Amino acid sequence: MTAGEQGLTGLVADCVEAMRDSDPRGAAREVLDRAVTDGSLRGGVESAAGLNILYRSSDLTVLNVIWPPNMFLMPHDHRMWAAIGIYGGREDNTFYRRSGDALVTSGGKELTDGTVLLLGQEVINAVHNARGAALRPRCRPAPVRSGGTSGPRRPGLKVGPFRHQRAPRG
Ligand SMILES: [Fe+2]
Predict the structure, then answer these.
(1) Residues with CB under 5 A from ligand 1 (ion)
(2) Confidence of residue 5 (pLDDT cuts 50, 70, 90)
(3) What is the CATH number of the domain that holds 33?
């Protein structure tokens, strides 16, 4: 096991502990703040691009997310809070709000190495890996409360459930 993989194992244990805190969101944020700044995740975390599940229980999911170059994740509503920590690369977030049966842009945030972001359960966002293959993969160990999957939304189109079979293929 590499040092980075040991770091992820420790991160999962700390996230599990954070869910027992009287303020689990704040505790999760502290865990991620520490993890993305103390270097414990560096030194060989090798995973394929994608949403790699590190841990899943009735009240917690921990993901190690690695975005491929030029990836765009369409707008989706979270329906649960999430804490996101970036330990390599960059992730550009665009936020949306509902306007009738469509979505309109309401802001954005660029997450860089060492950044931690808390998202509320009402958040609708899209994610873009804008820099292409020249940069490191961006990763986010994201402890989130378990629950139903988000229903992705497309700006300017009628809001509705996401169907994988109808998703555009690259
Ligand atoms: Fe999201």
Answers:
(1) 125
(2) confident
(3) 2.60.120.10
